[in-house]
Each structure stands twice: as structure tokens, then as C-alpha cells.
Amino acid sequence: MKLRIEKSPAPVWFRPLIPLLAILFTILITSVLVILVGANPFHAFYYFLIDPLSSRVSFIEVLVKSTPLLLTGAAVTFAFVGGFWNIGAEGQMLMGATAATAIGIHMHAAPPWVAIPLMLAGGFAAGMAWVLIPALMRVKLHIDEVVTTLLLNAVALLIVSAILNGPWRDPVSQWPQSPEIAASAIFPKLIPRTRLHLGFLIALAVILIVWFILTRTPFGLKMKAVGLGPQAARFAGINVDRTLLISALVSGGIAGLAGVNEVAGIHYHLIDAIAGGQGYTGIIVATLGGLNAWGVTLAAFFIGLIDTGSQTVSRALGVPIYLGDVIQATLLLTTLAFLLFQRYRIRIR
Amino acid sequence: MEQAVWLTFLVGVLAATLRVATPLVWASIGEVYTERSGVLNLGIEGIMFLGAFVGFAAAAKASQAGLPGYLWIGLGAAVLAGVIMALLMGLLSVTLGVNQHVSGLGITLLSIALSMFGFRLVFGESKVLPSIEPFGQIAIFGNIPILGPVLNQYLLTYVAFLVLVPLAWWMLYRSSFGLSLRAVGENPEAADAAGVNVYRIRYLALIIGGAFMAIGGAFLSLAQLGAFSPGIIAGRGWVSIALVIFARWDPVRAMWGALLFGAVSALQLRLQTLGFQLPYEAFLALPYLITIFALAIAGRNAPYPGAYLKPYRRE
Hints:
The complex is a heterodimer.
Chain A: E1 3-7, H1 17-37, H2 41-50, H3 56-81, H4 89-104, H5 112-141, H6 145-165, H7 198-216, H8 218-228, H9 230-235, H10 240-267, H11 278-288, H12 293-317, H13 323-338, E2 344-348
Antiparallel strand pairs in A: 1-2
Chain B: H1 2-36, H2 44-64, H3 70-95, H4 100-123, H5 147-151, H6 155-174, H7 176-186, H8 188-193, H9 198-224, H10 236-246, H11 251-273, H12 280-298
């Protein structure tokens, strides 16, 4: 028996099924792990996939959990489509959160319609600033942006830690957490007595804008051309460097907004776990979502579901909470593999 | 008196430099093999993490069972785990030819998630971190002043500097395997035409690399610390990735890079204790910033392997 991979594009109706197949395959693989731990996989995946949707409270919690993932997913999508391999959403998110806190704690005299736009603008700018050096190094010096964006994640975390252990250390409790932002800077709740906040609408708006830019503007077309092949794009008369730079900066800015969202919508102060790996999860969301805005929306919701479910699974079945992380990482790898079916088919003979 | 203080300081820095550099040498040499075959393995951070965890868990269990060579059992288990992850990376990036950035990152995420899952499973949620009696330093130079404190190191440190690096140099530039490896990394089509099995060489490179990365991680839990915690790798894999580019894919230069990194880290630790008023995070960030700066200079027109990041499909 020989395995051969042949070029053969999949029919259009088959493409949306690919992420679903990847999800099914992931459930199959991770079930083995659940069985090894001595739990029932049907129970486990009931808690992961169905239980969070069964009550209003937990459904809203899924939306809360998916909010930052919509933003980091959109950020990664924007960069990847434009051919800029931004692995630094985590660091850009941390910088966005830091800027939002710096602005938010000084907004006691300002009304919300001043405070909130200022924080959003500050977070966007901080995220952009954090990706600027890798972007310039890529464009001007042709240095692989994967390594530089990756290393700057570690630096961003150290900066946050230095601020929290220095000027912003809580003078009373001595905890490494910043002072609380002003009440007017806190995102209003969308539904009273829940955690769902303005950030969710902002994230949906960002998704809409990303969709519009990528599919309805000439610039989106240029980005796609650069993403598919800078050489060909250059021959077609596209300013490749400029396009790359803008893709990178907008991506960093959106990741910065994810940081604002966590400060103004959830924590109300800065802590060093504020990003908590959600920048990296954005890469999973973007890949599972097939690098398009609506796919990212569904993927963020799905990962939010797993995040919410993993706490219940851990409580109810005694399975370590990290099963959720295992599922997400497995899902990334299976999606990558299954995406091949878009362009290739495997022939066994 | 003044002189004696400085001598102690210097001896401490030199000893720590070798210790800090050891896991970086293991991991970056592993990555040199991998990248020279044309595959970027961003799974390095996770494979180090998995190596540290599996090595520690296996050693702890073997030690509880009263097995004498429990540390070696741990090291063997770590290597096995690293090889399995390398095979998975090979399946994705070599056989299926998917994007190496994302698949490597996925390997890292999966390895870390599996390690944390396993850690909770094996050791529960106890607040007291479990520990084992780790590998000790070997007193080759006994009590000889200066030489003793600096060069009495762990076995894995000696192997890294005295075997791994020279062997990697010999393998790459003097052996027929190295010739095939570099050919596959530069021009897989030509290598294939010359009768080299591109897939086999790339898998071999990934396996060697995965084993070394896992040993680099296991060095931390089995030798330096005798314990495992979630912050154990703390970006050392990413630093190794940078070192490889900084070293222009040469094993000897990668070793010098690791030593430089080790020296900066060691100095930073000691300057802190001497009461320098900078926040300690500034020192911790220094190696990353130096690496990025070095990339900006040395990385300009860096001699990337010709087939770097390019999957090979036999038509």
C-alpha cells in the first residue's frame, strides 16, 4: 500500500466541512485521553459542548470567554492573510492592556464617552507600536518576523511584571497588581448582573471591519496577493513593503484591543496573567476559522465553549482542567492537516 | 581582600555561565540539525517543556519504586517523549507538508498542555512541589582552587560541550550523513535526483533534534533543579531558535552564542545581589533584546538554508 498526495482541489461544498471534520477527529483522539484517565468521554464532551449551551448563564459566559478570542483571532487572521507571520499577538495584547490601564487610572474626572474611546485608541496604538520593530525588520532587513515577534512576547511580559512590581504595585496589599481604573473607564454591561460587556460588541464590530477590508476593498485584494506570494505581487505592481507594514500594524493594533478588553471589561486593573496565552489561542482561532472573518467568529465561539466547559469537566469528572488546552492544541494540528483536503487528496493504492 | 572578592565573583559567574548555557546548547544543536534539513521546528519550547516534565515524572516514579538508576530512566523517558513529538512534527511538516510556523507552534502548545495535564494527573494539586535527588556535579577537578568551582559540572554539561558540539560539527561538515542533510536543506530536488531520500533525512534530523531538545529540558528538572514547575523552560526554547539564526546555522557558533547568553544571565543574577537598583526584569529582558539586536545586524542577509520552510513533494 502506498500513500500519495496529489493536487486536486476539493469541491466548493466540501470546504466548510473541513473544520467540522477536524473537530470530530480531535474529539476522537482526545477521547482516548479521557478514557485513560478513567472518565467517560461521552460525559466529558457533553460538558464541553452541550452543557455550556444549556443555561442562559453559562451561554453568556461562553460569549464572555470568546470576546478576547474574537479579537486575537481577527488580529492573527489579518496578519496571516497579508503574509506577515505575527506570532506576537500575546505581547501586543499585553502592551494594549498596559496602555489601557495607564489611561484608565487617570480618567476619574472624564465621562465614559471620553474615557473609553481614549483607552481603545491607546490600546490600539500600543499594540501597533509593539509590532512596529518586527515589521520594520521584516520589510527593511528581511528578517523572519516569527522569531522577533515571539521573543518580544517574553519582553512584554517582563515589562508588565516590572511595572507591577515597581510603580504600580498595590501599596496596601503589596500584590503585583495595578490600581483600579476609573469607574467611567469600565466597559458598561450589556446585560445587567452578567459579565457580558461592551467589549463583545466592539469585537463583533472589529470582525465586521476585518471582513469588509479583506473582501470588499482593493487593499484587501493586495494583502491577499502579498500573502500568496510577494514576488508575484511585486510583479503585479503592488507595493509589497507598504502592504506588509500595514497588515502587521493593524494586526498588532487589534491584538492591543484584546488587551483593552480584558482590562476594561473583566479585571479593571492590570495583572501579569492578563493575556494568559490568549494571543497564542488567537492562532488556533484564525487557523480553525480558515483565515476568514465569519470562520473566525465561529471558531472563537467554539474555543470559548471549550474554555467554559473545561472548568465544568474538571469539577464534575475530576479530569485535570488542562484537558481543554490539550483539545485546543490538538484541534490546531488536526485542522492544519485536514486543510490539505482543500487542495490535495490522498490516494491509497 | 578586594581581590579575593572579585575572584569569588568571577568564579561564580563562570560556573553559572556554563550551567545556564547547557540546556541552550542541547536545544540549539538539536535545532541546527533540524533547520539544516530545511525544517523550522518551533515545537522546541514545548518539546523542552515536555522533556522536563516527562523526565521528572518518570524519575520520580522510578525513585518511589526504589529503582537505582531512576535519573537515567527519567532521561530515557524524556528522549522518548521528544522523539514522539518530533515524529508528529515530521508527519505534519514533512509528510503532509503543512505550514511549519503554525504546526511547530501547535506542537509547542500541545506539548505544554499535555505536560500540565500529566503533571496534575501524576502529582495532584498539592501545594508542595514534589522533588527528587537530582544528578550531582562531578568533582573532576576536586578542590583545586578556581578550576574546581568552575569546571566541576554536571555530566550533561560535559557531554554538551565536549561531545555534542564537536560531533555536530563533524557530522555536518565531514560525514556523508551531513552532506545529505545539507543537500536536502539547500536543494531537495537535486538531493533527490542524486539518490538521497529527502523524507528520510528530514525525519532523521527532526528525531535527533527532538531528542536533544528534550534532554535540554530534562537537564533543568533532573540536574539543575531536581523539581518541575510550570515556569521551568521560561522561553529557553525561543532563545535557542534565535541562537541558531544568530549562529548562522553553525553548531560551534551556536555554542558561543549560548555561552554569551549564559554569561549575561549569570552576570545579571549577581549584579542583582550586589544591589544594583535597576528592576531585575530589565536584566531578564536583556538577553532577548540583545538577541533581537544581534538578529538585526547578523541576520541581515542571513544564509538561511535554501529550502528553509519549504515542504518537499515528489512529483
